[in-house]
Here is the input.
Amino acid sequence: MDKPDLKLLQNEDIDVHTNQPQQVEMPFAIVEGESLTELPRDLYIPPVALKVFLDTFEGPLDLLLYLIRKQNLNILDVPIADITDQYVNYINLMKELELELAGEYLLMAAMLAEIKSKMLLPLFEEVEDEEDPRAELVRRLLEYERYRKASEELNKLKRLERDVFITGVESSHLAQPIELPDISLQELLLSFQEVLKRAEMFTTLHVLKEPLSVRERMTTILEKLKNKDFLDFTELFDLEEQKTGLVVTFLAILELMKEFLIEIVQTKAYGIIHVKALLSDNETNTEH
Amino acid sequence: MNGEKLKNIIEAILLASYEPLSADKLHRIITSKVNTSKSDILSAIDDLKTDYENKDIEITKVASGFRIQAKSEIGDYLNIMFAERTPRYSRALLETLSIIAYRQPVTRGDIEAIRGVSVSTSIMRTLTERNWVRIIGYRDVPGKPAMFATTPEFLDYFSLQRLDQLPDLPEKKEPLDLDLELDDRSVGNQDLSGNGSESVSVGADLDMEAPTIQD
Here is the structure.
């Protein structure tokens, strides 16, 4: 596939000129920093084409590798300031073209800026093991490049539907017809009856909710407390009851407290919690 | 049963089968009717290979077994016939598939770490729907991420018998010399030795090694 030759300029406007893809007279090759040919400024690449081009980058590592490789820069000694500038230019261009920019691109921009700023800081003698700030990035780039190359090789393998075609003969006419078992009408009716029976079971399996009223439980609790000074908090719960029953009891206790009908007393931390009725006919002797 | 007859049966079975068949499976199918040995089957397959020498079809062995396919010389004709049916796979898909193939078992996280972008759900779906990739377990770390590996069908598709027949992964390069450069580092020396020309920093021409637009 012909690739568009593009030149990205730093102008505010997208100002893109191109050579015709067919003219391959070593265009714009940069050897040791010298650009070899002049760019023709009369051709224009529509933003749509540029969009297609930019869209093809498979993520920030791909874009960075492209920038490095096409300028024949040494990946082990990347001029980080330059590469960062160029990278950010592309990001801005992508934004202007309203390409949906994956967060990864922005993350990489931030990473580059961080590396760039670290490079600007003077090196401390004391820190022996200080690694080149670029090392991690370079490692990732190299690792990505390995797999990118591997995928290119994978693409070259002979594969089905493109290079290899399986031969076959039609054999469906030989397929044995599947023998279906005979079913008498009676069997059918019997099994339908079974279904009806089961359906009936479902209708009778309505589980009735045990009506557990908080109000009612409040009464029960007060009842229990009636002739006693106090009760152990745990005595109010009937462990036979299901979880809902316990919750209702607890709600009832809270409700009773809110209405100042009972009082909860705990004399020491982790001690027994006493519940005491505060009914009017039961004069309070102790103040807490 | 004589060898000629067995050979013809095997040929017909392989032609009728949509999938490659292993010698074991062929043996099982045939012995259910007539008694043969596995070595008879293998030698019949060899005979078939000889028969096909002068034809444009061939028997090949791939991961799941033997299949009869058109010789590659015929590919050009078939490509014209199948032109609109030839599936094309994106670079993203091929990169993802390569990482799974070379680094299996891998999690999505592993793939993301290498590619630097999140793994696309639609790619993983394509890979699993094509039955090239499957989940072979869950890594015992928080989140229990699924580990992916390739399948025999993947090898079949790429005409391989075993994983080690994949092209070698490019050698790993370590950025060793980096530390040596540290001493020369100082403020301002990064206007790139030898690359200080304006055109490099200002423009970036996109003429070389551009990623293919659609593949």
Notes: Chain B touches chain A through 82 residues (CB under 8 Å).
